[in-house]
C-alpha cells in the first residue's frame, strides 16, 4: 500500500489502498458496512479494528470490483461485502 489506512470522521469511512497490477487503487468502506457485515452483535466497535481483522477479505472484494470494471476510488457497500461468501467469519 502507498499509505496506511485511516478513518475519515467526516465521511465515517475507512480509506485505504490496494495494490493491483503494481499500482495502488484507492478504496473506502463505511463504518456501518463494516459493523453490519463483520461485527453485528458488537457494541462500540472501532472501524479501524474491524478493518484490521478483515483486511485480506476486504482487499479481495476491491480486487473483484476492479476486475468487474469499477473505477477508482472503489467505494465498497454492504452488498459488496456480502457477495461471494464474504464475510466468512463472525
Low-confidence stretches: none
Q: How are helices and strands ordered from N to C?
A: EEEHHHEH
Q: Can you tell me the overall shape?
A: globular
Q: In angstroms, what separates the terminal alpha carbons?
A: 26 Å
Describe this structure in words.
The chain has 90 residues and is of the alpha+beta class. Helices cover 37% and strands 24% of the residues. It is built from 4 helices and 4 strands; from the N terminus they run βββαααβα. The chain has helices at 31-38, 47-53, 55-67, 78-82; strands spanning 6-8, 13-20, 23-30, 74-76. A 4-stranded mixed sheet has the order 1-2-3-4. The longest helix has 13 residues, at 55-67.
Please supply descriptive tags for the structure shown above.
4-stranded mixed sheet; alpha+beta; 37% helix; 90 residues
Short description:
The chain is α+β, with helices and mostly antiparallel strands. The protein is built from 4 helices and 4 strands, in the order βββαααβα.
Topology (SSEs and partners):
Elements: E1 6-8, E2 13-20, E3 23-30, H1 31-38, H2 47-53, H3 55-67, E4 74-76, H4 78-82
Parallel strand pairs: 3-4
Antiparallel strand pairs: 1-2, 2-3
